[in-house]
Each structure stands twice: as structure tokens, then as C-alpha cells.
Amino acid sequence: MFALLKRYRELILVAVLLLVPLGVFFAHAKAPSDRSRLDRAVVWLATPLEKGIGWTIGGVMRGWSGYVALRGAHDRAEKLAVRVQALELERQQLLAERTEAERLRKLLAFAQESPERRYVGARVIGVRLGTAGRQLLTVDRGADDGIARMMPVVVADGVVGHVTSVSASSADVLVLTDSTSSIAVRVDRTRARANVRGLGKPDGAKLEYALRTEDMIEGDVLVTSGTDGVFPRGLPVGKVTQLNRTGHGLFQDARVIPAVDVTRLEEVLVVTAWERSGDLLPAALAPEAIK
Amino acid sequence: MKPVAHVLFALALAGVQAALLRWLGGGSFSLALPAACVIYVALHGGNVDGSISAAGVGYVMDLMGGSPKGLMTFLAVALFLAVRATSAAVDVRSRSGFAALSGLGALFLSVGALLLTRYTAPPEAAPGAILLPRILGEAVLTGALSPIVLAGLRRVDGLFHREEAGLLR
After folding, report:
1. Do B70 and A28 touch (CB under 8 A)?
2. pLDDT in tens, B17-56
3. In angstroms, what separates the C-alpha of A77 from chain B's closest C-alpha?
4. Are the Cβ atoms of A45 and B11 closer than 8 angstroms?
5. Is residue A174 within a helix (H) or strand (E), and if so which, with residue range?
6. Contact between B153 and B161 (Cβ < 8 Å)
7. Residue A87 and residue A120: Cα distance in Å, rounded?
8. Is A21 in contact with B55 (Cβ distance < 8 A)?
9. ipTM of the assembly?
10. Exposed, middle or buried, B133 (CB in 10 Å: 0-12/13-18/19+)?
11. What is chain B's mean pLDDT, rounded?
């Protein structure tokens, strides 16, 4: 028996090595089993090797990408810097154009709110808002464009002022903060009358001829009354602030924060035609109906 | 000791292969470098230590490749026997011959694994002919890289080579 085994030991060994794994395979093929201790030990042996190789390859690749591949990076960086500057300029230009488009859209919407009025759009080309002299803006539209003296100048936020002198291709606008400017207004909440006069500086105006008995509080919105014959009625002029009602006297004092910041204007609308106060009366109250 | 060295070499080779495939291609292609070990032991080993080495290498392939237990062990021993049977008729000494045989060996192992897995797996999970292009690519790449494995295994075998006393060279 032993002699037989010894004689065919190679054949038997190979057969065992062939058939045992096949049996193991068929036994575990349907239901995979967990790793044995031997399996785990072998994997434990291989893991540091894999980690080491991964670390080495990773180091080489990091070295390559961090040093060798950076050859020429300086030139690329310079080219990119130039490109970044060009793109930044382009971006700034686009931002400016977008802001301008928004402003113009706002102005257009405002102009379309009252179709009975006629507007001429104008760009501000000169600013004279110093403490000495008058508070003036110069716009790029003049008599050739149908602009005339005393025409109101507005933006979507409210009143800017009125045209004070005209040349063929430009016009000067006296802004509402000039000390010689006076606009007839009403308190939007109570319809109380008053005048707004400029203080000679771009950010301030005061309230005049507001009767002491009138209901007025700080924060009240002032709109044009239309009674001065210069401005259409209902345009925002400013807000009441620093209200001072003394115990004596006929009028109350207050400061006015203008609705429009005249230092930031770039485009304005000149109102060339608008409804007059009489046009706004209901038909039953119209002068011809009363007669 | 030789079979142990061969198995350890195959283990290292499987580790290198896994790490390389991780960095190169990220698994878009595959390799079966331990198949070249089986070819080597079939060509240069004895019946006993060669078959043990082949079984050991197959075990390593099972373990590192995640195949069902015994599958690659069986196929590696079968490949060993097939190469052993043909090596008498085909004399493989050159590196190119070894590469071609390694490629065929990788193909043998992959196709064998495909067929056996198809036989045992449920129909919906059975691998299909869609894997054949990948198998062919694996065989070609394995054949192309097998000369490196050959050089490594020759060095391993060199460690066990003993000078015979009194032999003049």
C-alpha cells in the first residue's frame, strides 16, 4: 500500500491539489464564506506592501506634479495674469453697463407710468454743486431737443429740479437743493401744503410755510402739489425730518431729506409736456361743467 | 522552500499589481501577473514543488482577486498541468515565448474562471461574453509585462542555487 502511494505520490499530490480546490469552489460558490485565519494572515502580509507601493508611487507622482511638471509654470502664470487683468477690465465694463441698463430700465418704467407726460432723456455731463454759486447740473440736451426753461427734471425716485438755462445742445438744471429753488409740495399723508427750499448744499432742504396747525410728523413723504405751475403733481420730493413746532408763530420748521441724491445722478428725464392741474379735475368738477 | 518563495513572490506581485492598477487607469484595465508565475513554475519547476507553487499562487490569486475560494487555485493547478503537458512539445526559452505563453495562461485562467462562475452563479448574476474584450486585453497586457516577472522569478530561484563542490566553471 505504502509502496503504491510512494510510487504514485506525485500523481496523487497533483490530483489532490487539483480536486480539493475544485471541491472547495463548488462548496462555497453558492454561499461565499468569510476569510479564514490563514486568509487574513496572508492579506495582513500583503497590506503593508500595497501601502508602501502606493506611498512610493504617490510620492513620485506628487514630486512630478509639484516640481517637474511645474516647468514653464512661470510663463503660464504671467500669461494668465495678463488674461486675468483683461478679463477683470471686461468684467468691470460689463458691471457698469449692467448698472446703467438697470437705471435706464427704471427710468423707462417711470416714464411709462404716466403716458400723458412727454419726456426727453438726458445724460448729466456737468456737475456744479459747490458751496459757492448755484447748485447746477448740466445735461446733454438743449433747445434743439425741445428743452425749454422751467421744464421739470425728474428721475424715477423723484424731483431733481428744473431747467434754468438752455443752449442749443445742453441745458442747466437748477437742483431742488439750491437755495433759490422753491417747490410747492403737499404732505402725502394729510395733503397739508408747504414749500421745499434748498439749503445750498446737495443733501439738504428745508420746509417753508407749513402752518403750525397742520398735522405733520417726521418721516412724512412730501410730493409736488402742482400748484407752482412748474412741476406735475404727485412727484416725490423728500421726507420730513427734524420737525420743530414751537409754541408760538405761524409756521412750523423742518428739514427735508431730498428723495433724489443729486450727487449720484447720471441720467435724468426732462418733462417736456404734462397734465395741468385743471386737466385732472373729474368731469363733474370741470369749470365748463360748473358753468 | 522554493514554493514558499514563489508564493511570497506572487503575493508581492499581486500587491504591486493592485497598487499599480490603483494609480494607472484606476481599474479601466486589468492584469493577471501571477499567471506568469504559474507558467514559470510549470516550465522550470519540478512536478511536486511546481504543483505546490502553482496551488499557492492560485490561492494568492483567489485571496487578492476576491474570487470564490478554490476557483483560481484549481485553475492555476490546471494551468500548471496544461503547460507541463505542452512544454515537452514546445520549447520555451526566450522571453518572447514566455510572454506569449503567459498571455495564453492569463487567457486560460480568465476564460476558465468565466465558465466556472457561469456554471455556478444564478443566471441573472452570471458573467457574460461582454467580458471577453477585457479578458483579451488582460491577456495581452499580462503577456507584455511577463518578462519582468520572469526576471524577478529568476532572481528568486537564484537565491536557492548552490554551487556544487569541486565543479569548475
Report:
1. yes
2. 887 777 776 667 888 899 999 999 999 888 888 999 999 9
3. 28
4. yes
5. strand A171-175
6. no
7. 35
8. yes
9. 0.80
10. exposed
11. 85
Tracing cell 487607469 back to the chain, one arrives at B25
CA distance B30 to B158: 30
Chain B residues inside the 8 Å CB shell of A21: 55, 58, 69-71, 73-74, 77
B33/B138 Cα distance (integer angstroms)? 9
Cβ atoms of A158 and A200 within 8 Å: the answer is no
The residue type of B31 is: L
- Tell me the C-alpha distance between B107 and B91, whole Å: 20
Number of residues in chain B = 169
Are A21 and B121 in contact (CB < 8 Å)?
Answer: no
Question: Cell match 504559474: residue?
Answer: B38
In the structure grid, which three cell numbers stand for residue A209, read together? 410755510
In 3-state terms, chain B is what percent helix, strand and coil (to 5)? Answer: 80, 0, 20
What's the average model confidence in pLDDT over A26-49?
A: 79
Q: What are the start-end ranges of the E strands in chain B?
A: none
Residue of B nearest to A54 (CA): B19
Residue range A117-145, pLDDT digits in tens: 888 999 888 888 776 667 888 899 999 99
